[in-house]
Amino acid sequence: MKMIRAFIRPEKEQEVVLALEGAGFPSLTKMPVFGRGKQKGLQVGPVHYDELPKTLIMMVINDDDMKKVITIITDKAKTGFVGDGKIFVSPVETAYTVRTGEAVL
Amino acid sequence: MKEITAIIRRDKLHETKKILDELGYPSVSIQSVDGRGKQRGAVCDNDLDPELPDKYCTCVKLTPTPSTYALEHSLPKVALFVPKRMLTMVVPDDVVSKIVKSIIKVNRTGKTGDGKIFISPVESALRVRTGEKDGEAIS
After folding, report:
1. Is the CB of B36 less than 8 angstroms away from the CB of A97?
2. Please, what are the domains in chain B?
3. Least C-beta-crowded within 10 Å: which of A61, A67, A95, B52?
4. A91 vs B: CB within 8 A
5. Residue in chain B nearest A56 by alpha carbon
6. Is the ipTM above a cut-off of 0.90?
7. Does the A2-91 domain belong in CATH 2.40.110.10?
8. What is the DSSP string of B70-84?
C-alpha cells in the first residue's frame, strides 16, 4: 500500500475530489496547510507573501492504483503556473479499519 | 520505528489519549482534518458525534466553503466531508500491535465512520533539544 500526499490549490480541491470519486477512489482526508516552494512564496508588487494556502489531500491506496490516482490528481490540479503543488508517495505497511478491527484497506 | 496515523471520531479523542497514557506512550500529534470514506461523506446521523451540527448535510452547503464554490461554478455535485481528528505518533516496532489493538478497542462502535489506522515505516528520528537519535529520541 502507498500513502499519497498531494499539495494542491485550494480552489482545485472539489474538482480533484469529484474526479477521484468518479474513478472509484472516494476515500481521502484533507487538511488546510500553508507552505512555500522554490519561488519562496509570492511577490505581488511591493507585497511579499512568504507562505501561501494550500490543501493537503492524503489517501492510502493499493500499489497498482498509484499511477492512476497520480494521473487523475495531476490532470485536475494542473494550471501550468507556479504553485500547482507537489505529490509525495510513501510506503504504508498495514491499514486497519477500526469498525471491524481487520487489517484490510 | 513505525509511524501510526489514526483517523478517529472527534468525541473519542479524550478516551484515546487516556488509553495511550496508560500504555506509557503519551506522545502524540493531533490535527483537525476533514475526511470521507467509502460512504463519500454522506453521514447524516449525528447520534455518534454530538459535536456535529444538526442537519450536517445542509450546513455544508450553506457555509462559505469550497462547496459553495462548487455550486457557484456548477460542478456536477458537491463533495461532502466529515470532520475528524488525526493522531500521528512514532513508536518502537515491538509495541505497534499493542497500541493499535487498544486504539481499536476504544474507538470501535460498530457503525460506519469509526476511522482508519495506517502503519508506515520511519527511517530515523532526532530529538531537537538534545540531538539524540532514533530509539533514544522517541523514548
Report:
1. no
2. 2-138 (3.30.70.120)
3. A67
4. yes
5. B33
6. no
7. no
8. HHHTT-SSPPP-EEE
Is B118–A90 a contact, with Cβ atoms under 8 angstroms apart? no
- Are residues A72 and A24 in contact, defined by beta-carbon separation less than 8 angstroms? no
Q: What is the pLDDT of residues B19-32, one digit of tens each?
A: 999 999 999 999 99
Q: Which residues of B touch A93 (CB under 8 A)?
A: 2, 119-121
The three three-digit cell numbers of residue A69, written as one number:
490516482
* Phi, psi (rounded to 5 degrees) for B86: -110, 125
Other C-beta atoms lying within 10 Å of the C-beta of residue B81? 23
pTM: 0.81
Say which of A28, A91, A96 has its CB closest to residue B117: A96
Name the residue facing A96 among B69, B79, B104 (closest C-beta): B104
Among B2, B115, B95, B105, which Cα is nearest to B48's?
A: B115
Contacts of B115 (CB under 8 A, 6+ apart): A98, B6, B7, B8, B9, B84, B107
The H-assigned helical ranges of A9-94 are 13-22, 66-77
Q: Residue A96 and residue B116: Cβ atoms within 8 Å?
A: yes
What's the gap in Å between the CA of A6 and the closest CA on chain B?
Answer: 14
| Cross-chain residue pair B120–A93, CB shorter than 8 Å | yes
